[in-house]
TrEMBL record:
NCBIfam families: Ac_CoA_lig_AcsA, PRK00174.1
Transmembrane annotation, as ranges: none
Enzyme Commission number: 6.2.1.1
Stretches assigned to coiled coil: none
Lineage, highest ranks first: Eukaryota, Metazoa, Ecdysozoa, Arthropoda, Hexapoda
Family per similarity comment: Belongs to the ATP-dependent AMP-binding enzyme family.
Statement: the UniProt record of this protein carries the keyword Nucleotide-binding: yes
Keyword flag Ligase: yes
CDD domains xref list: ACS (cd05966)
Gene: LOC108556600
Catalytic activity: acetate + ATP + CoA = acetyl-CoA + AMP + diphosphate
UniProt KW keywords: ATP-binding, Ligase, Nucleotide-binding
Species of origin: Nicrophorus vespilloides
Protein name: Acetyl-coenzyme A synthetase
SUPFAM superfamilies hit by this protein: Acetyl-CoA synthetase-like
Amino acid sequence: MPSEKTVYLPDKNVAKNAHISSFAQYKEMYQQSIDNPEEFWGEIAKQFHWENPINYDKFFTFNFDVCKGPIYTKWLDGATTNISYNLLDRNIRNGHGDKIAFYWEGNHPDDYSRLTYKKLLEEVCRFANVLKSKGIKRGDRVAIYMPMILESVIAILACTRIGAVHSLVFAGFSADSFSERIIDCQARALITADGVWRGEKYLALKSICDQAMDKCAKNGHNVEVCFVVSHLERVTAPSGVQSNQSNKTPMQDGRDIWWHDVVPQASTSCYPEWMQSEDPLFMLYTSGSTGKPKGVLHTTGGYLLYAATTFKYVFDYKPNDVYWCTADIGWITGHTYVVYGPLANAATSVLYEGTPFYPQNDRFWGVVEKYKVNQFYTAPTAIRALMKFEDSLVTRHDLSSLRVLGSVGEPINPEAWMWYYKLVGGEKCSIVDTFWQTETGGHVLTPLPGATPMKPGAASFPFFGVQPVLLDESGKEIQGEGEGYLVFSRPWPGMMRSLYNNHDRYETTYFSKFPGYYCTGDGARRDADGYLWVTGRVDDMLNVSGHLMSTAEVESVLTEHRGVSEAAVVAKPHPVKGECLYCFITTNGQVEFNAQLVTELKKIVRERIGPFAQPDVIQSAPGLPKTRSGKIMRRILRKIALNDRDIGDISSLADSSVVDQLFANRPISA
Ligand code: PRX
């Protein structure tokens, strides 16, 4: 396996034609972006349409220091624009009307379609007009709970056309989680589909939405209109499974509307709503360490520049390339690198509905071959799951079109990196290990294809405009080699501006620990060559298959069970998921800790949060290791999860005998 010193140089053919073809060029551009952000981003902004022109005196202002007043970031203040206009009308004017925006590949290989830029604009305008006809207007929030289908992109862009703020929720979240998010943002409208097949699994999306809307109503919030795409009828169900599920879709009079009943007859033109650069574009919930999800708010002008620029350089996208990001549209990666970044570059992308394993475990490679994909972007958890299968599943496909391979969502381990690099990339692709967050809006640390010598597992260097700093516990900057808190000392255009309706929480969560810096919540190490290696979360967050969740959120669900008095959750390393949930449960004497309880607890987590949050291990904990002040020592619980008896100093424990008991209680399967 490669060591920290192993370096892979970019392939000569990748470097020769790359937008940024040497490390020296990267460094020069980076320095310019830091020394003169107005000029750097101003030049990029010229490619886009600004209805109200840019005022260079107010191009970029910010305050990151809570001691100096409220935290804020503003880019291109005063300029107005419309994102859908820039992604669609502008590209059509530039001659890309007949270019394919998306190749849609269904769950079943027999299902596929495509959409040009011209057609996409028409569909966006139609749906924007429908939204308007239902009274949805600038500033209103629209909740979206959709599968990976073309209407999802249309719905997103239709919101931006009229200035409504979209709030997507990954269609794997439970009705409870969804309703909590709808209520928090007070969404007036909801957009969904009847259902979807993911592999051989059927997801009844509309009925989850119905449950969510019922819960909202019980909490005093009524969703006024719910649009439903009839998707099931047009797709092929997995063989042997009942196909026409849509007959069963219940529709509520006066609230629910089939997409096909209103969209086809709507007008294909819709004048764009000109938005201020700092007007909200969308919000997207991410887990908070206190348990309550945070509505991360992104705004218009800066986000557009950042999505466009990161997409172009990090994937080295060229006009005739075909790009594919496997992320779900319900996560930030889907927002920035399925929708906004590619469309801002008039790119052609693949939009894939299914899983890597259906109908066979080589589906990803079959799709790469089918569309001659040049840039492929996925998560380490998928890579780890796929590398378990025999190599021939990869090698039997022609993957010679690939030039750039991306990774996102969690650290990529060197084994997975090497497999990706050698087997999938044939040792001729650049691997871009992109570190970023829902909050950062786009890549912030990443290698660049053609420019950055690669070290397996290192997110490497900052993107343009990003100034990373490592801090020690006292807030002192670590120069040169060392490990510390990963923070940023200034905003880049695409960073979040606030938490929806909760600016105080924004300031305390991200800016109070180290005044003057945005705190990522991750740790990082800088090696002797200046490469940054993200070491993982420094707070109580877990990253399961690239899905971030907080220990508090899972613990509070577990303690809802009538038999549980206390719960503590820690992350345990997992060979495919990266991390999995290991839960310690103290019962309250009303129920016995047994297999039935374990099943019930797993079910509660699935129902309240979503299937992706299901714990791997639940063990009985008659007592938890606590300090005298009552704080749970998670460090010790992590050791117990690993069955590692080297637990270090336990002198601060109120009762150290619980440790032995917990080791003894480890389930055999753990
Ligand atoms: O811990 C980092 C991890 O994922 C977190 C952000 O999660 P989320 O907001 O859901 O966004 C995921 C997609 C951008 C980070 O705080 N993370 C993300 N990418 C990497 C990573 N950790 C290490 N290396 C990465 N490339």
